[in-house]
Amino acid sequence: MAVVHTWPLASDPAHLSRLDNDDAALNTWVISWVAHALPSDPLNLFNAPIFYPERNTLAYSEHLFVQSVIGAPLLWAGASPVLVHNLLLIAGFALSGWAMYLLITRWTGSAAAGIVAGLVYAFNAHTLTRFPHLQAHHVQFFPLMLYAVDRVLADRSKQHAVLLAAAFVLQALCSNYLLVFSLFALTAMIAVRTDAWNRTAAVALLIAGAISVAALTPFLWPYYEVSREQGLARSIDEVARYSAGWRDYLVTGGRLHYAWWSHSLFEGRTALFPGVTALVLAGVALMNWRDRRVQMTVAIGITGFALSFGPALPGYAVLHDLFPLLGGIRNAARFGWLLLAAVAILAGFGAARIKPRWAIVAVCVLVTAEAIRTPIGYTRFDGLPRIYERIAAEPNVVLAEFPFYSGRSVSDNGPYVLANSRYLRPLVNGYSGFQPPTFEARGTALNSFPAQLAVDNLKMLGVTHVTVHRAKFAERFGEATLNAIDGVIELQLLDEADGVRLYRLR
């Protein structure tokens, strides 16, 4: 089903891509950098080469640690980062659905119910409209976390406390958003299980919490440093712009609903429509309200739904100020994923009440028909420009690429960031979820290139090489400015290929 829902990606994963979106370029670079840094210099994992000479630049966005570790053997074997990214995308869908299948099969005793829940969980409106965001598709540890916390509350064993910590840490290392979502989900589950509130359960939960804090601190500390030094925090006004409204819960990219009615609501919104079939099954599950697991699941869904409205929810602004991790969440609408996860679980409970095999098959068909978007539109990737092979062979490279993009056009640095995966040396350019004020100030000076002000700034930064993408530079600054580059005596032309010139800065 992962292949079906991403088709035709599996037909040519080395060349099809979503690199039309610069977030996909960033994430492809991230998995390359993490796989490179882990065996060579793990203590400097967050001192990634983009935005040179800033520190902790990996903390400007998601670190994708788990995804990178999964893909690392392929990258070490020489596979293209684009190929690995695509395989990780398919794997994320498959592993997430499989994990939910295992949870619901364990909780209900019905493998058929597990299949239904797995389909609803992995292939929903939200995940199927976020193909450029690898962090959104690896939610395979969330079901294991739910299983573990249920066991901790039921039997209060230290063994399950360790399992809870492991599942939470692994899910948190897939995405900082998922770290926050998981924390709120766990809080909601524990809050409604008043029957399990006792000292033994509290000790088990404290053990899980202590292990989690110890494991995650090395990954969270760079984010804290960036927040303190560079002001990486989302203002409440910014969060308000990226919060959900009731219309978001009617948005889906599924072809059936999109063509019929959802297209009129889609633009600029977060797709959070659970699907008609899933909602009906969830309603059936609510008939068994006394089941503690159903109650916990409903608590998760209500929590995600409420928080998705961001500052429109009374008290959200207070949480935003008091809870540092929440201060890093810009897109509050994505909390709605918790509601979709809850609906998937409830759909599994509802499907467990269906006995005829043909009816389960029909439910699976309906769920798939509502969600499916294939064939997905991809762009073709035919490899990086050849000039980056030359850059990779140069010793001690510190590179600046022109035209240099900053301000509102910063995402146009995406192709430069992707190309950095070939040589992984310091790059003055950068694109990420955050740009520090120092980078923006630097961009003002460098946009005067090839004026002496820009050349002096490059020297001050320690830049050794410069590339000029001729067509893009001429389009932005004119042919006369492009021709003036060859008159700069500090620049020595080394090579030219595919419309890109490589200079050494003397």
What's the gist of this structure?
This protein is mostly helical and 506 residues long. It has 23 helices and six strands. It has helices at 2-5, 22-40, 65-76, 81-108, 111-122, 142-155, 158-172, 176-192, 199-230, 236-241, 255-266, 276-285, 292-307, 316-322, 324-327, 336-351, 357-371, 387-393, 414-423, 437-446, 452-461, 470-477, 479-484; strands spanning 16-17, 379-380, 399-402, 465-469, 491-497, 500-505.
Can you offer a commentary on this structure?
By secondary structure, the protein is mostly helical. The protein folds into 2 domains: 89-371, no CATH class; 387-505, no CATH class. 57% of the residues lie in helices and 5% in strands. The protein is built from 23 helices and 6 strands. It has helices spanning 2-5, 22-40, 65-76, 81-108, 111-122, 142-155, 158-172, 176-192, 199-230, 236-241, 255-266, 276-285, 292-307, 316-322, 324-327, 336-351, 357-371, 387-393, 414-423, 437-446, 452-461, 470-477, 479-484, and strands at residues 16-17, 379-380, 399-402, 465-469, 491-497, 500-505. The strands form 2 sheets. The chain has a 4-stranded mixed beta sheet. Strands 1-2 form a two-stranded antiparallel sheet.
Characteristics:
single chain; two-stranded antiparallel sheet; 23 helices
Strand order, biggest sheet?
3-4-6-5
Q: What's the total number of strands?
A: 6
Low-confidence region ranges? none
Instruction: Give the biggest beta sheet.
Output: 4 strands, mixed
Helical amount: 55-70%
Q: End-to-end distance, in Å?
A: 55 Å
What pattern of helices and strands is seen along the backbone? HEHHHHHHHHHHHHHHHHEHEHHHEHHEE
- The tally of helices reads 23
Name the shape in a single word.
Answer: globular
* Proportion of residues in extended strands: 5-15%
Structural class: mainly alpha
Number of domains: 2
Mean pLDDT: 96
Our Rg estimate from Cα atoms comes to 24 Å
